């Protein structure tokens, strides 16, 4: 489903080459009309934001949201394995999944970069892609709620992904803004309650997931 390719670009570090193609990207999503035609309804605020803001402002905002805020990291395994040795093996398995569908990982971003995962999904049959997406809805909801508390326009994309996975859209009412949280409590949450992939996973058996090879933030 090409919609996943569009979502991969929308969640990548802003560059003029794909920002200039926003009208074509919106038309492609509208033509596919996944989720009973509601995808563009979810995404419209993000498209409007990306079309209205200067490039430098978009790039600064992206870095602020995703590079300088570990709780909103787009590196999937950071939420599962942190910096443990298990992350290295998960990366190897992830790259193999890319190779199985003909993708070759290159560029500065790590394999578990979420836009790369969405690139991978764009090459799968629709039902399989939605099943794979369903395995990371805990991550999508957690990061999305944190973005909602920051009033980020990227919330629209996480709403869209949850809808594509057949999940309810975000409700950020229970999450305190990052600036208002106690740093020690945040550290405990990060260390003791990682976001896991798939129902029934435990920290010792988190499932490998996949994530394009777009230029990462900070480039």
Description:
The protein has about 220 residues and is mainly α. It has one domain (about 1-205). Helices cover about 55% and strands about 0% of the residues. The chain has eleven helices and no strands. The chain has helices at about 1-10, 15-20, 20-30, 40-50, 55-65, 85-100, 115-120, 125-135, 135-150, 155-165, 185-190. Helix 1 packs antiparallel against helix 7, helix 4 packs antiparallel against helix 10 (about 155-165) and helix 9 (about 135-150) packs antiparallel against helix 10. It starts with a helix and ends in a 27-residue tail after the last helix. The model is unreliable at about 175-219 (pLDDT under 50).
Q: Compute the separation of the termini in Å.
A: 28 Å
Strand composition percent: under 5%
What's the SSE pattern?
A: HHHHHHHHHHH
pLDDT average, as an integer? 76
Question: Count the helices. How many?
Answer: 11
Evaluate the radius of gyration: 16 Å
Tertiary shape: globular
Structural class: mainly alpha
Number of DSSP strand runs: 0
Tally of individual domains: 1
Low-pLDDT runs of 5+ residues are 174-219
Short description:
The protein is mainly alpha-helical and 219 residues long. It is 53% helix and 0% strand. The chain contains 11 helices and no strands.
Q: What keywords describe this structure?
A:
219 residues; mainly alpha; 11 helices; globular; disordered C terminus
Topology:
Blueprint: H1 2-10, H2 16-19, H3 22-32, H4 39-52, H5 55-67, H6 86-100, H7 114-121, H8 126-134, H9 137-149, H10 155-164, H11 183-192
Helix pairs in contact: 1-7, 3-4, 4-10, 9-10
């Amino acid at each position: 489903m090409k919609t996943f390719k569009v979502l991969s670009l929308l969640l990548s570090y802003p560059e003029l080459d794909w920002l200039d193609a926003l009208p074509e990207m919106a038309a492609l999503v509208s033509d596919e009309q996944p989720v009973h035609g509601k995808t563009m309804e979810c995404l419209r605020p993000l498209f409007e934001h990306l079309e209205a803001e200067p490039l430098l402002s978009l790039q600064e905002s992206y870095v602020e949201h995703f590079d300088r805020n570990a709780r909103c990291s787009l590196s999937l395994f950071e939420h599962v394995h942190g910096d443990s040795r298990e992350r290295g093996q998960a990366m190897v398995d992830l790259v193999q999944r890319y190779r199985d569908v003909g993708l070759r990982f290159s560029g500065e971003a790590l394999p578990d970069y979420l836009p790369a995962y969405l690139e991978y999904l764009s090459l799968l049959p629709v039902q399989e892609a939605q099943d794979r997406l369903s395995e990371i809805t805990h991550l999508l909801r957690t990061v999305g709620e944190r973005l909602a508390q920051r009033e980020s326009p990227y919330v629209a994309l996480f709403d869209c992904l949850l809808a594509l996975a057949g999940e309810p859209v975000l409700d950020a009412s229970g999450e305190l803004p990052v600036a208002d949280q106690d740093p020690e409590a945040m550290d405990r949450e990060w260390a003791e309650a990682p976001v896991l992939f798939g129902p029934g996973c435990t920290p010792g058996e988190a499932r490998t997931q996949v994530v394009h090879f777009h230029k990462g933030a900070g480039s």
